[in-house]
Design brief:
single chain; about 290 residues; 7-stranded antiparallel sheet; 26 strands; about 55% strand
Length: about 290
């Protein structure tokens, strides 16, 4: 009689707390990936959480700046942000909406608050592009809150499925290069949920409210608000809330395993390509 294969649960490989910083024209935020503690987690280059009730912390926004060679993913929790680029694209991100922007060969854009008071809160994630796609035409995948798949797969568990698959349901974002997973989880105290991460993906969980235990049995570790857990070991993720109103994002992607040449808003594969990006930008070719 065949014996069942034991489930290989993911565990917390390492844990770190985001660091306060500012970007754009002085917007205060917390940098979780992209700093000295965790420069990147292939294919992820940066994760920033922004969240404040103080208008002076966000009103200056992110004036015009260039990007080339990667994707920016903006997920709004609270507030409104207007996006414009030099290709004529414009739109407003509202609470619960997602913009997945493929910068490709280059564009110049701005992200400015569409409010003068109230709370501004959300995440920006940078996802690398493979060498073959770095000079592709820029494009957008932009979805209003009602386009984001929402489900309640277990008692006390609510999920917004931005990218990836849960059972027969699939999030609206599609990116074959990295096959991303992006989930926003809300759990009541004590509620738990298990999820099979795609095999071979690099993955992390970032708790932004409350407290969660990640892992199974003796391997479970507590992750507190504003802490990121890099997942290691097996592909079966188990998350249990240890605080009322626990919220976290779970993100995974297929690693590219390519050389990275990076400076500011440009991410290429070689120093030569990086230098060319500066030349092209200065000559107005974005």
């Amino acid at each position: 009689m065949a014996t069942a294969t034991p489930i290989a649960y993911a565990r917390v490989g390492r844990k770190l707390r985001g660091q306060p910083t500012s970007d754009g024209a002085g917007v205060r935020l917390t940098r979780v990936i992209g700093g000295p503690q965790l420069p990147d987690l292939d294919p992820f280059l940066l994760l920033d959480e922004f969240g404040t009730d103080r208008p002076e912390d966000y009103l200056a926004g992110f004036p015009e700046h260039p990007h080339r060679g990667f994707e920016t993913v903006t997920y709004m929790l609270d507030g409104r942000m207007r996006h414009r680029d030099n290709h004529g694209n414009e739109g407003v991100l509202v609470p619960g909406s997602v913009q997945w922007m493929t910068a490709g060969r280059g564009l110049v854009h701005s992200e400015m608050p569409e409010q003068e008071q109230g709370r501004m809160r959300g995440f920006q994630l940078w996802v690398n592009l493979p060498a073959r796609d770095k000079m592709s035409e820029p494009k957008y995948q932009e979805f209003a809150p009602e386009r984001i798949v929402q489900l309640a797969p277990a008692p006390g568990v609510q999920i917004k499925l931005i990218a990836g698959r849960i059972g027969e349901l699939r999030g609206p974002i599609a990116q074959p290069a990295t096959d991303p997973v992006y989930l926003d989880l809300a759990l009541d105290d004590g509620a738990y949920w298990e999820y099979e991460l795609p095999e071979g993906h690099n993955a992390f969980a970032y708790v932004y409210e409350g407290e969660a235990a990640i892992g199974e049995g003796e391997d479970a570790r507590t992750v507190q608000a504003q802490e990121l857990a890099v997942l290691a070991g097996g592909s079966r993720l188990r998350v249990q809330a240890r605080h009322p109103d626990t919220r976290l994002i779970v993100v995974a992607g297929r690693p590219l395993r390519e050389p990275v040449a990076r400076y500011g808003p440009f991410v290429m594969n070689t120093k030569q390509e990086l230098m060319q990006a500066f030349v092209d930008f200065q000559e107005g070719k974005f």
